[in-house]
Task: inverse folding
């Protein structure tokens, strides 16, 4: 379980204050709000990419507020996917495992497992440069899930996709949530996405989190 307690996060003149919420194992939380409301700032703080001024980020009751990003059990897919374009799909997926010093055999096994789960086995030897938007999202999900994270954070993962591909990725995300029982925090502007995916919805407005009825 992830528990954010009275978080205060500052970014220049912008700040979020007194942000508290919980996400349980298997829960799919969609975080909504206008552009500039601080959704990405909040998710980056949870991932350890932005400093928390006050408050705590707890993961299974352990305080990870000041823990390095690579030492948190949190997978992150930023809005642009941030794939390494000079690497193959397989190399992108195994990246987090190599920096965690996994044995080569276990890395190869995990890459094959995720490729099968995400339907990208045929892409493993290709570089990511010319992949479609949907293919890139699948690879980014594979990289974020590679090390068995407790939490998966997604920053507008469907925003750049056409309607057909968006529907495919929504189905994929539903299946991943149910099969892996990982807690997911998904930033979105879309009520349609929220209704299709969320088990709970929070809205960030004027620095205040409000629960939204499904």
Result:
């Amino acid at each position: 379980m992830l528990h954010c307690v009275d978080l205060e996060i500052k970014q220049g003149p912008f700040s979020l204050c007194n942000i508290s919420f919980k996400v349980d194992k298997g829960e799919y939380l969609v975080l909504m709000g206008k552009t500039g409301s601080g959704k990405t700032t909040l998710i980056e703080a949870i991932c350890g990419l932005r400093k928390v001024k006050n408050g705590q980020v707890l993961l299974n009751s352990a305080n990870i507020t000041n823990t390095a990003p690579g030492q948190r059990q949190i997978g992150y897919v930023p809005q642009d996917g941030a794939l390494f374009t000079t690497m193959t799909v397989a190399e992108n997926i195994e990246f987090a495992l190599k920096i965690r010093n996994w044995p080569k055999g276990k890395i190869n096994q995990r890459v094959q497992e995720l490729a099968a789960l995400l339907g990208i086995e045929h892409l493993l030897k290709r570089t990511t440069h010319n992949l479609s938007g949907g293919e890139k999202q699948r690879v980014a999900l594979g990289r974020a899930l590679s090390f068995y994270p407790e939490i998966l954070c997604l920053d507008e993962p469907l925003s750049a996709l056409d309607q057909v591909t968006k529907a495919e990725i929504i189905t994929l995300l539903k299946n991943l949530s149910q099969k892996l029982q990982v807690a997911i925090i998904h930033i979105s502007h879309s009520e349609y996405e929220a209704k299709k995916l969320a088990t709970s919805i929070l809205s960030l407005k004027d620095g205040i989190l409000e629960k939204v009825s499904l």
